[in-house]
């Protein structure tokens, strides 16, 4: 029986759960029109890598809960604003993460299934980004 080597990069999961992510803004037909058909349900994992700085966290998203291959990540080091409770007919529990990197702004719209889930994600994200939650 062979022993597997432990991963050199261990992480601590702070929070995880399902959210539905919008496509990049340039793929939306207009900045304010949000089409559900282009959105993808992803499993998000907020983690603190071992050996990282005290307030350094990573937000990766995956196709499923096995977390075998990341589909992408949101760079929380560049996070400028977290907005909760956006108004949308399609998504009643919608939040946004606004980032700014290399003179380019990107807003990630994320929908969850309940008000409680939205509040939990917003609290975690604001905590790790050093921000206060904002209402639209």
Automatic annotation (TrEMBL):
Domain PH: start-end pairs: 12-130
Protein name (database record): Grb2-associated-binding protein 1
Organism field: Plakobranchus ocellatus
GO molecular function: signaling adaptor activity
InterPro entries membership: Gab1-4-like, PH-like_dom_sf, PH_domain
Record-linked PROSITE patterns: PH_DOMAIN
Pfam family, one: PH
Any Gene Ontology CC annotation: cytoplasm
Gene Ontology annotations of biological process type: signal transduction
